[in-house]
UniProtKB/TrEMBL annotation:
Domain (SnoaL-like): residue spans on this chain: 2-115
Organism whose genome encodes this protein: Marivirga sericea
PANTHER family recorded: BLL2395 PROTEIN (PTHR34003), SNOAL-LIKE DOMAIN-CONTAINING PROTEIN (PTHR34003:SF2)
Protein name per the record: SnoaL-like domain-containing protein
Record-linked SUPFAM superfamilies: NTF2-like
């Protein structure tokens, strides 16, 4: 499976409500995740961050992957996604983001998200 296909599989799993399954399968033990709100280091800390994000969601309405590109040799994948969610406070938001992943030995070791 190419890195591009693995990233598509991650988003297929997320679309099925299996974000944590995708995280457990594809993220490395020393992963670092960075986004505008902060940086999390190590699989346990990053997984806790994902669990907290899921806890804020009341209802998931859908997700779309609008683009994926990869440099398989360099181990870099970039993806653009949009998610439509309602948060626990009732606020419905269409979240759009770009992510850049660094892969090593079949696992994501760094991922940076860009969004407004």
């Amino acid at each position: 499976m190419t890195l591009r296909e693995k990233t598509q599989d991650i988003y297929n799993l997320i679309g099925e409500g299996k974000l944590l399954d995708a995280f457990d399968k594809y993220y490395g033990e020393s992963v670092v995740i960075t986004e505008p709100r902060g940086t999390w280091k190590g699989k346990a800390e990053c997984r806790k961050h994902e669990e907290e994000f899921l806890g804020m969601i009341k209802e998931f309405h859908g997700m779309e992957v609008t683009a994926i590109t990869s440099d398989e040799e360099a181990g870099i994948v970039m993806h653009e996604t949009a998610m439509d969610v309602t948060f626990q406070d009732g606020n419905r938001v269409n979240m759009e983001q770009v992510g850049v992943q660094k892969w090593e030995d079949g696992k994501i070791v760094h991922e940076r998200f860009y969004y407004q």
